[in-house]
Specification:
The chain is mostly helical and about 375 residues long. It has 16 helices and three strands. Bound molecules: acetyl coenzyme *A.
Length: about 375
């Protein structure tokens, strides 16, 4: 028997939840009983947000109400804008999102209320604001004029419009919307867990979302999509993939965008994103990034199949976003713009049935030591 101590809370159940189910062996992801494939093909991100928050898909009037509430929440408070303009232009967009989320907490009239009604309002406001902050930050750092959002359009449409200043075409909006759906929730991943840990102290929703944003930022979690893009740029031409991968293998380096703690099959989101990345490349007449990503998978995956290592959600999202003209340092922020829906759905659950998280550790330090004055140490 292995004497390796369990670590990283692997397989430890820390909550009961009815939001998201993952079948890691079959590569299946389910939101509130609906398969992710079904939702990505047929639903809008707004419908999925409603589903995750409320447990059911909205009827027409519920959907209209949500879209209206999101629309009226697409409004930049003057103080937040002033704050963003004061930040150094090379600030990491995830730091900017965390700063903005904390600032929005100071400006929200419901900030300190933990009531379900207040939490729902705050979740809607944050879901409307994170795309505005991400895109505004991109424009501010480049010295571009800020644009007005269109409250009658979807969050996906607004993100692409506010970023690029051009009305996006239908296929780009459809694809971006599907990408938001694919990233919206993923059970007790690291950032969702950190959001729940913060909420479990009865800290407020904005503070819990700040924890989640800061946790998502890391390259082992949401930051991996940016790291995949860096790898593709480092590789250079497509015909350098094989040589580059040999180098990684020789140095025993991890390949970003590969493996997931809970999947022993290909991540179902990667399957959908792979199709999207290929189609986007064909439409843009720029298949290089898809081809390169596909070649990395072709070479690397068979070498790690025995360990159950497959591409994860980040692997094909990098090439898809790149072809859409999105700068790679915004990839993780886009993840946050979507995952805020999942985080807040989990926060509703946490507040409704709260118990403080307080795990324990296996102490391996010294014992029985006696204090000595500094002159004797
Ligand atoms: N490439 C090559 N080998 C890998 C990779 C990888 N990307 N990931 C894990 N392995 C290997 C490890 O070397 C280890 O091998 P060993 O048993 O021979 O020592 C084994 O798989 C287990 O690896 P751990 O790091 O212990 O796996 P863990 O479950 O703790 O980590 C994680 C999961 C963080 C996702 C890790 O696989 C990783 O760093 N992947 C790359 C980063 C990434 O893509 N992150 C995004 C995950 S999805 C998301 O959060 C949205």
């Amino acid at each position: 028997m292995s004497d390796k101590k369990p670590s990283g809370l692997e397989d430890v159940v820390v909550a009961q939840s009815s939001i998201c189910l993952i079948d890691g062996k079959r590569g299946q992801l389910v939101y509130r009983g609906y398969d992710i494939d079904d939702l990505a093909q047929n639903a809008s991100f707004e419908e999925v947000a409603y589903l995750l928050w409320n447990g059911n898909l909205p009827n027409q009037s519920e959907l209209e109400t949500l879209k209206h509430d999101l629309g009226v929440s697409m409004h930049f408070p003057k103080h937040l804008l002033e704050l963003l303009r004061e930040l150094p232009f090379d600030a990491n967009p995830m730091r900017v999102l965390a700063v903005a989320t904390a600032a929005l907490g100071t400006l929200d009239p419901d900030a300190d209320s933990l009531s379900p009604e207040a939490n729902r309002k705050k979740a809607v406001r944050l879901t409307a604001m994170l795309p505005l902050v991400t895109t505004a930050w991109h424009r501010i750092r480049n010295g571009y004029e800020l644009l007005e959002p269109n409250p009658d359009k979807s969050l996906a449409w607004n993100f692409l419009y506010l970023l690029n200043g051009q009305e996006p075409d239908d296929y780009a909006v459809e694809t971006f919307d599907a990408a938001l759906i694919l990233h919206a929730d993923h059970e007790l991943n690291a950032s969702t867990f950190s959001a729940r840990v913060t909420a479990a102290t009865l800290s407020d929703l904005h503070s819990a979302v700040c924890s989640a944003i800061n946790t998502l930022k890391g390259p082992l979690h949401g930051g991996a999509n940016e790291a995949v893009m860096k790898m593709l740029l480092d590789i250079g031409p497509v015909d350098n993939v094989d040589h580059y991968m040999e180098g990684l293998r020789a140095r025993k380096e991890k390949v970003m965008g590969f493996r997931h703690r809970v999947y022993k099959a290909k991540d179902p989101r990667a399957v959908i994103l792979e199709r999207m990345s290929e189609e986007l490349g064909k439409r843009a007449n720029d298949t290089k990034w898809f081809d390169m990503t596909h070649r990395v998978e072709e070479i690397f995956q068979p070498t790690v199949a025995a360990k159950g290592i497959y591409p994860n959600v980040d692997f094909y999202s990098a090439s898809a976003y790149h072809v859409m003209g999105i700068p790679s340092d915004l990839f993780t922020a886009i993840f946050a713009c979507s995952r805020v829906v999942g985080w807040t759905a989990h926060l509703f659950e946490q507040y409704a049935n709260n118990r403080l998280f307080r795990p324990s550790s296996d102490y391996i330090g010294e014992t029985g030591r006696k204090w000595k004055p500094v002159s004797e140490r």
